[in-house]
Write the structure tokens for this entry.
Amino acid sequence: MRATRIESAFTHGATIREDGRVVCDMYLAGGKAPKDSKGEWDLYKILRTIPAQDVTIPLAESTCPLVKR
């Protein structure tokens, strides 16, 4: 299962690390002004993508007992 990349509405190309943590990019979003919205659910705009390695603690710092050292 850890070798499988996860594709869903919430994650694109996510992986599962040795400690069981799902690692994926995160998104910084901002709210749209009503005049910029094109529909009822058009509320946010993606300001930037934050790479997975910047939002996940390194595996070497994990305290999970599943991690083999």
Summary: The longest strand covers residues 44-50. The mean pLDDT is 90. The radius of gyration is 16 Å.
